[in-house]
């Protein structure tokens, strides 16, 4: 016996000497550094890296742009005031970068809260600039362009010429001034206004003198806002996409071109009734490669698809689908030097790298690490053999924070080298362990998948308290990545002791187009039943404690939360962030009525039964769950009025409720980092206060 103790004692000493990592704190969670984009230079010698971090003292964010030398392995800061409204672009030679700066990034306010506006010419406007950064001199040079703010920029055929577009902001003719005098600050809804138009400019920059001089000409005016802009040197064309503030009709989102030999002609290249995005030009300048997501509803048909990949031939106008054999969701892509493609495709909970050599070939999966690959970038020059196969990307997984990686060849993917260390702190913390969890829906035996985040040190334990944290969208998914935001905080909730289920309910991407479309006509009831089936399975398996169940979500996740608490009193606490309760009024005032109309199968007057059945407001008298509600004050995606309606109803019913309103915030809560931090802080407090309470303490109505 004594000998056994002697043999055991050294093991005890060794075990006790192993350092125990501390758990993640709220402050650390929100100091996570995001990497919105990266971009390899055409010659492969340099890599641009955009990082974004919170500046707590100034209630803002710092957007840094770095250049990393792939040969020198040195990283140089270009600016800490990068504008988020435009992704920096390499010049054709790879020796210069064009970018925009601003003192305080306010992208969210521009894109998510601007419903109507009236500008007066008497208001002075400051001089605007485009900035050029020279790799050799390491100088950032301002290029004055007048008073209009550029929305998108592209290089021409050399390093001295650019095209850019601006959105008009002032009346431009006598009639406009007369109308302004008659109507003052009254807004005439749907009447065309200057911001409905764009102006495209050509600018030539002479760098031979110390201070760059410019020659600027108008190419032409376009009768809609522009979101993406490309130049084709071989076809001498500008290619761009149209957009509208209100997503009412897919006809408003198409691809157009201008022939630079005859700029008076504006050609519409697509009639897809779909959303085209991430346009990229092939190296020969003859094809535009782009992602497209279809959301179309008509009397005769309805179409919804995951994001797919297409090629538009500029020589004949033909459109061809690429990667036709891939059944998942294509998130991103990059064009290889040989005009083949790198494709980031989501299947289930992983996003992996695929390649396709041509439209006639199958896609090939390149086995790397399980997790999520993002922001893939490739050099474009085939004249540099040692660089033409190089790729860079951002990678993360459940337990590995996002960093930038680089590899000489896709064949060496598993041996990619990490070149940043922005989030080292998270490797020093005891993070939750995560695994996939599958169950069948009680409704029709469809297989549903989700992620289970276990509290640190309790992997695969039983009888745990549960938080169901529901992703937004609905056309999105919870995947194997380390992405920390005010809306994606499963790892922090698990650190606080909750087993977190992130369900990929029907409507989620990565499971095929049919899975995506099965929520039409039942946008809340069907995914809601999928989620409840998962909770029941966890209870049956003894994994969770049936008396400690909570639920929450943001955006569409909150829509589902609001519906779930009308269907069961099993949840002790609920968290509703920017969620609707009435879909007639939501359809009428949100900026994306197209989505609501598609999900409900029509307009409120011809699908009224579905609108009523899916709207939780008509069943709120069944709610007994204490609910914390949060919303952005000027959200136009899910207007704050929906949260006010939910709060008022629960207050009248005597259900514990609190509403937090974040000033100047739109849907994404990205203007002030404190807002997201306070949101999650209060949600954790709410779970702690109500999540463990006895369900017998039912609400008592305060109104009749």
From TrEMBL:
Coiled-coil ranges per UniProt: none
Gene3D superfamilies: alpha/beta hydrolase, TolB, C-terminal domain
GO process annotations (BP): proteolysis
Keyword tags: Hydrolase, Signal
Superkingdom field: Eukaryota
GO MF term set: serine-type endopeptidase activity
InterPro entries in alphabetical order: 6-blade_b-propeller_TolB-like (IPR011042), AB_hydrolase_fold (IPR029058), Peptidase_S9_cat (IPR001375)
Pfam families for this protein: Peptidase_S9 (PF00326)
Peptidase S9 prolyl oligopeptidase catalytic domain residues: 491-690
SUPFAM superfamilies attached to this UniProt entry: alpha/beta-Hydrolases, DPP6 N-terminal domain-like
Stretch forming the signal peptide: 1-17
Protein name, per record: Peptidase S9 prolyl oligopeptidase catalytic domain-containing protein
Lineage, top ranks: Eukaryota, Metazoa, Spiralia, Gnathifera, Rotifera
